[in-house]
Amino acid sequence: xxxxxxxxxxxxxxxxxxxxxxxxxxxxxxxxxxxxxxxxxxxxxxxxxxxxxxxxxxxxxxxxxxxxxxxxxxxxxxxxxxxxxxxxxxxxxxxxxxxxxxxxxxxxxxxxxxxxxxxxxxxxxxx
Length: 127
Known about the structure:
Structural class: mainly alpha
Low-confidence stretches: 14-18, 113-117, 120-127
Number of strands: 0
CATH topology: NK-Lysin
Number of domains: 1
CATH class: Mainly Alpha
Shape: globular
CATH architecture: Orthogonal Bundle
Helix content: 55-70%
Radius of gyration: 16 Å
């Protein structure tokens, strides 16, 4: 039984490692979390940045250190644009395209990322 559990755990690690890193997926997560905090009374850019950096740590626990590092880098470098787009009411995909994390989409409806991790409820409600 222990061998089976170890094999399953190893297989899960391999699958996660092979999945690769998707900057557009990370951006979708960042902007969704930014919208959540912005619409729940975090309307100061500095406070929003701090909340997003905490979300990046959570993303790292779920998606791996590469995702966490990328998330942190995007938040640190792009907080001005993220905050301005939130104030302007821009859509998630527009912000992600504007900051170069997603490729511009041509024609039809915009694709929705396959799986956008959601932060645990206790993290979302800790204002």
